[in-house]
Structures are given as structure tokens and as C-alpha cells.
Amino acid sequence: MSGKIVFPPDPEVRQNAGKTYVDNMKVMLAKPYHVGGEKLVLTKKVITENSIEQPPIGWWASPKFDGIRGVWNGKQFVSRASAAGAAKVYSYVPDFFQAFMPPGVALDGEIFCGNGNFQDTSRLSTVTPGSKKYSKEDIDQLWTNVKYMVFDSPSCPGTFEERAEFCKCIIDKICKDVEGCPLVWAPQTLIESEEQLSGIYSKIVKDGGEGVMLRAPGTPYLEKRTNLLLKIKVNEDAEAVVKGYA
Questions:
Q1: 188 burial via Cβ count (<10 Å: 0-12, 13-18, 19+)
Q2: In this structure, are strands 211-215 and 225-233 parallel, antiparallel, or unpaired?
Q3: How large is the C-alpha radius of gyration of the chain?
Q4: What is the DSSP string of the chain?
Q5: What is the pLDDT of residue 240?
Q6: The pLDDT value given to residue 236
Q7: For the whole model, what pTM was predicted?
Q8: pLDDT at res. 235
Q9: β-strand partners of 61
């Protein structure tokens, strides 16, 4: 697969026990929308500096997918860093899947096999041909059910809306006339009321999804956990959401 690593711009790559890690890759991470059963209230400073309203009004809502976070760094897929260790390059991704990815462009998204199939998704970052009795054909077959749900581009400057348009243009170009293209833009809805958010949340949960992500409009991609990106998860926040919208 041709292409150049563009995120991070100067990757610190190391090998350990046959695996490849990127020590300095950080992604934009969400904070909870509800804390202790109460909705997050941003400070006046944050509101003023970013020219936004208190969430969720004017924010972008998208599904929280039941998958594994993955970054396409322009050349390969990398799982995000966690408390357990550094970001790790996927051990094996079929050529047919990587062929849909844009070389030299970084995308942030979710490796997704459908709601309720988290276990199938979670093993994809480590399994390699010949390991755990998987052949190349076996693993390639697993990847035929995978979608890469894109929701941002860390290598594209500008506001979230500008990055979204950039991503959608790339995806439209790559997937034109391709049935079942694995590269998919995550749907985004501009929230006008709490009732609208409640309806979106309820539908996602009913369909087996994990919850909702909220993104502040007009904001940059930040390589850290930030309150400009919020999450409403079923297992953490369902009770608070029900109370808030009853």
C-alpha cells in the first residue's frame, strides 16, 4: 500500500515483540455529557472562546458506534493509545480493505462490524495470518463485514465543518459507483433542541447502538480529551438522559 504517514507529522515508531507502536499519536477524546446524573455545563470562558452555546444546542450529534477506534494515518491503521499502552499499528489489514483508504490523508473513525458484534471487531487489531489458527483467507473473510465509520480528519486544518466536508468529498470520490464501499461517513445531525437529541438517542439505543457523540461546532481537532467532544453512553448515562427528557 503506497502512502505516507501524515499523523502524527513526526511519528515516533518502535518495534516490540513483533508489534509496531506509535508512541506520540494522540487523538481527540470525549468527556461525559452527564456527571453524577447532571448535565455538563461549560464555563463562560469556554463558551466565549469557542463562540458556541451550551450543549446540546447547535452541536453536532452522531452515533456512538459499538466498535474499535482506529486512525488511518495515511499509510496504515493504528489503534488509539490507552492507559494500558501506546497506539499500536494493526498487525494485519487485507489489501482489498486498505485499497479504499486515501494515501497520504489521515482519517479518524471506528472499525465497525455492526451493533452487537464488538467481540468480532476487537480481535481484528491483533490477529495475523498463522496466529491462533487463522489463515489469511479466514482473516480476509472477517474483514468483508467491516465498515470504517469516519467522523474526522486529524490531518485537515480548520473547523469541524470544514474537516467534515473534506472527509465527505474524499469518501464520495473513493466510493463512487462502489456497492458496499467500506468507507462510510458517520451521519451528523445539528441539534436544535433537547427533545431532538432525546429522539436521536432513543433511536440509536433501540437499534443496539452505544449512545451519542456531541461535537462543538466550529472547533479544531484537539489531540487530547476535551469538553468540546462529549459522549452519552447507555451503560453510564441512560438514567440521566431519561430523567432529563421525561
A1: middle
A2: antiparallel
A3: 18
A4: ------SSSS--EEEETTEEEETT----EEEESEETTEE----HHHHHHHT-PSTTTT-EEEEE-SSEEEEE-SSSEEEPPBTTB-EEE-S---HHHHTTSPTT--EEEEEE--TT-HHHHHGGGT--TTGGG--HHHHHHHHTT-EEEEEE-TTS-S-HHHHHHHHHHHHHHHHTT-TT-SEEEPP-EE---HHHHHHHHHHHHHTT--EEEEE-TT----SSEEEEEEEEEHHHHHHHHHHHH-
A5: 44
A6: 59
A7: 0.91
A8: 66
A9: 189, 214
**Cell digits of residue 163:** 474537516
Grid look-up 465509520 returns: 149
**Amino acid in the structure at residue 236:** E
Q: Which residues are paired to 85 by β-bridges?
A: 82
Please tell me the predicted confidence (pLDDT) of residue 210: 93
Task: Using 70 as the pLDDT threshold, list the residues of the chain that sit under it.
Answer: 1-2, 83-84, 132, 235-246
Q: What was the pLDDT predicted at 24? A: 95
Residue 47: the pLDDT is 97
